[in-house]
């Protein structure tokens, strides 16, 4: 009887820890194949299937979703705008932009919309599954070639800012810690819990960081953090 009770608890715990996924893509065959792939994974729970941003926003009100796989090219509202809407209403939902666009400007816009990952549709299925698990752990997922673009300066920050490791480091140790968590995709409330301060204090640290570095965009923070070895490329890719 005790063994049966333990098995029931284990099954219940596994069900509670499963990752619920939503797909947003207007290609029916692509969604069907992706859904079949995801449902084979033991740690994937429900898979919600939507064809456009409007359907996705409505479905999010009805389903518990942990990770959204978001296409960019959608009829009506595009995926980047949809990402902004979702993160405003449900900041704890992780969004992976899943697209065929291997272009840095789209990556920049995805980061600015607070996506947790950017993955190409040509990626292997194992990469996608790994990306879903990684963003659930608070990591940011970016294709290696695009991370290199951030580091090399293909994506430009503001001119004249304290970027690229030149001169004296303007950030305090606490600000570096906060910046690392920002780059890894944590929300202000999550960071507050991790470093045991209020959300307002985290917001103040973030404001100070952006003022000191003379930047306004998330991708500029990511670039600075990589160049100054505050985060490793592996942290963003795993």
Give the SSE map.
Elements: H1 2-17, E1 19-24, H2 28-38, E2 44-50, H3 53-60, E3 67-70, H4 79-89, E4 94-99, H5 104-112, E5 117-120, H6 125-136, H7 144-152, H8 173-183, H9 188-195, H10 199-213, H11 218-227, H12 233-237
List keywords for this structure.
Rossmann fold, 2 domains, alpha/beta, 238 residues, disordered N terminus, 5 strands, 5-stranded parallel beta sheet
Characterize this entry briefly.
The protein has 238 residues and is an alpha/beta fold. Helices cover 53% and strands 11% of the residues.
Protein described:
The protein is an alpha/beta fold and 238 residues long. The chain folds into 2 domains: 2-141, Rossmann fold (3-Layer(aba) Sandwich); 157-237, Response regulator (Rossmann fold), CATH 3.40.50. Helices cover 53% and strands 11% of the residues. The protein contains 12 helices and 5 strands. The protein has helices at 2-17, 28-38, 53-60, 79-89, 104-112, 125-136, 144-152, 173-183, 188-195, 199-213, 218-227, 233-237, and strands at residues 19-24, 44-50, 67-70, 94-99, 117-120. It has a 5-stranded parallel β-sheet with strand order 2-1-3-4-5, with helices on both faces. The longest helix is centred in the N-terminal third of the chain and has 16 residues, at 2-17. The model is unreliable at 1-15 and 154-166 (pLDDT under 50).
């Amino acid at each position: 009887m005790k063994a049966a009770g333990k098995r029931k608890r284990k099954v219940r715990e596994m069900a509670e820890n499963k990752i619920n996924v939503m797909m947003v893509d207007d290609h029916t065959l692509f969604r069907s194949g992706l859904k079949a792939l995801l449902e084979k994974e033991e740690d994937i729970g429900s898979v919600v299937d939507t064809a456009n941003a409007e359907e996705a926003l409505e479905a999010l009100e009805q389903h518990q979703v942990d990770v959204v796989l978001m296409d960019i090219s959608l009829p009506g509202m595009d995926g980047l705008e949809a990402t902004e809407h979702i993160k405003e209403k449900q900041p704890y939902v992780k969004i992976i932009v899943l697209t065929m666009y291997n272009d840095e400007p789209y990556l920049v816009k995805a980061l600015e919309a607070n996506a947790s990952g950017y993955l190409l549709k040509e990626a292997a299925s194992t990469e996608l599954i790994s990306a879903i698990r990684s963003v659930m752990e608070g990591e940011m997922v970016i294709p290696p070639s695009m991370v290199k673009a951030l580091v090399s300066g293909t994506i430009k920050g503001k001119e004249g800012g304290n970027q690229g490791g030149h001169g004296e480091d303007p950030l305090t140790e606490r600000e570096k810690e906060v910046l690392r968590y920002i780059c890894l995709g944590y929300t202000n409330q999550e960071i507050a819990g991790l470093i045991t301060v209020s959300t307002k204090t985290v917001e103040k640290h973030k404001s100070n960081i952006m003022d000191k570095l003379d930047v306004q965009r998330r991708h500029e923070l990511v670039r600075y953090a990589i160049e100054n070895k505050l985060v490793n490329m592996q942290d963003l890719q795993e």
